[in-house]
Specification:
Strand 3 and strand 4 (25-30) form a beta hairpin. This protein has no helices and 9 strands. Helix content is 0%, strand content 40%.
Length: 116
Amino acid sequence: MAKHSFRKAEAPVSGSFMIKKEGGKQLLVLSSDFKTNDMAPDLKVIFSPSATPLASTKAPGFPLKAGSYTILAPLKAASGAQSYVIPASIDLGKQGSVLIWCKKFNATMAWAPLKP
């Protein structure tokens, strides 16, 4: 499984993620050194069909257009290892990146492409 490092958008970030299969399910797994802004409210793990999701948005918040992403789940914690089951309804072949996004303020904290 390839590891994909998160890149800074609105907030400093560290860590990476990988997608793996376990028990017939696909999981998105954040690394133990994952960390993003712990003061940001309403953080979500989302997928974007774009491999460069911030290209069509502006700093500092990098807001996303409605309908341009798919929410996987609320972020469990602003730091540390965690995993999320990717439902079969999300076709990873049609996704280009993973983002950590603040829904309340429509601000992208961090992102990473799905493919190297």
